[in-house]
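Our preliminary data section would be incomplete without showing what the modeling component actually yields. Below, a chain of 554 amino acids is followed by its predicted structure, encoded as tokens that our downstream tools consume directly.
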Amino acid sequence: MITHIGIRDFAIISEIDVDLQSGLSVITGETGAGKSIIIEAISLALGSRADTSMIRAGRSKAVIQIAAESLTDAGDVEEYILTREINVSGKSPAKINGETVTLAQLSELASRLADIHGQYDQHSLFRTENHLALIDAHHSRDIGPVKKKVADAWREYADVNRTLSTLLQNETASKRQQDFMRFELNEITQADPKAGEDAALRESISILQNSELIYEKTTAAAEALYDGDFSVLDGLGAALRAVREISAYSKDIDDIARTIADCYYAVEDMAGALRGCRDRADFSPDVLNAAISRLDLLERLCGKYGGSVEKMLEYKETLVAAIADTENTDERKAALSARRSECEHALVRACEELHALRKTSADELERRINAELTELNFSGATFAADIKNTGGITERLSENGADTVEFLISPNKGQPLLPLAKIASGGEMSRMLLAFKAVLGDYDRIPTMIFDEIDSGISGVTASIVGEKLIKMAARRQIICITHLPQIAACGEHHFAIRKNSDDENTHTSVEALSRDERIREIARLLGGANITETTLESARELIELSAKGAAKK
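Predicted structure:
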């Protein structure tokens, strides 16, 4: 529940701090005193969109802070401080327990802490598209898992159906493309390229084109190292023999002998490699022309199929897979058609299961709403939830199932059931909304409900009955109710008055917790207006006493 509300520099509010308790708290005030501003500030702290126009004139920012607590499933108390700022720059940072969070994170937590109901909620009851969600919320624990099953089945069906449709649409085009892919595959296969072949050909061509110079230079180098009369190898051999004769006398000399030996064998290897290069440098016009032709072919194909032999070989594998894929179209069609049929049957079964649960929920909701309406002095009215199942796999199905729901009402005996939007007055809608919240509140487990003028369009005995209903609801959760009716105000366990005061420069709104005597005068004001007489004061006392007796009976 909400334990504290702090508002700074918001609209005409300079500074307000209100401590709240459990049970039913009522807030009253003269028209224009700022009751709607309080609600708007609370809404901001709970995650609604910010507007810089709500910053108090002459201030750089507004700050709204709410302290709240809730019970975990284990029964532990969790405490939260929700903070929202509105800066003139347009930024509106949000914090939970001092840590900056996104607006989505703030809204998610706030939705589990408090629920605000006002004129918008009444209008939402008119919209048919909201009715199914209310049916689902009524039995959410049973319906939720089956709704997920339906959503999963729908997505699987839609995926298979989309794949099959795409396959059928592309089937004709695939057959036309198949001949072209076969031509490309045949061209690459006939060429039979090998990875790295183009690089080897370029090196071979380079050698053949420079064979005379290569032969001359490799011969000269081989003679210098090995074949000549005064070769490097002869010199190293002489040096090695000389040093080995004295290597036993010194470790350093022995190390030198080993190094000379390594050099000797390395020169032998180099000389052999040079002779190999010289032997391969034999010029052959036929070999050169064949290499050039082969390289030209590979470069032409590389230009068409990826830019390199490696990319061309990858493309070849792609062609093989694509051709195999097109050749298996009939098999794939049959498999996808069978799978779509399986998914369709699974979806239909899940939708039937969901419809049965929704029908049970709708029937019970009808019974409970009608009972609530009777308690709310709306006994001549009949409420009905008209639920229909479209059935089958048609464009009307969705991941939400096959059902449509419309709420109907007959406000008086003998009148036909008609959509809520066509016949409900403001007072009827206020009681209808309260009936829904009384029923659905048992399921959502939200610890705080805030009602903004839920008493719209009602008066007299009905107002007293609505007050008693709020008392009953407040036995299970915190209720905060902004009202202008004395019958409802008299039912509050805690009473706050909103005052608007002006001086020569500014207007200020304040919220005061009322003592018993102050509460009597405030309810007397609601009963008789500005002229408070002893009669209205006595009426206020009597109204409070009667409300207290009614609460005791509850």
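The chain has a mean pLDDT of 85. Residues 170-327 form one domain. Preliminary results of this kind motivate Aim 1 of the renewal.
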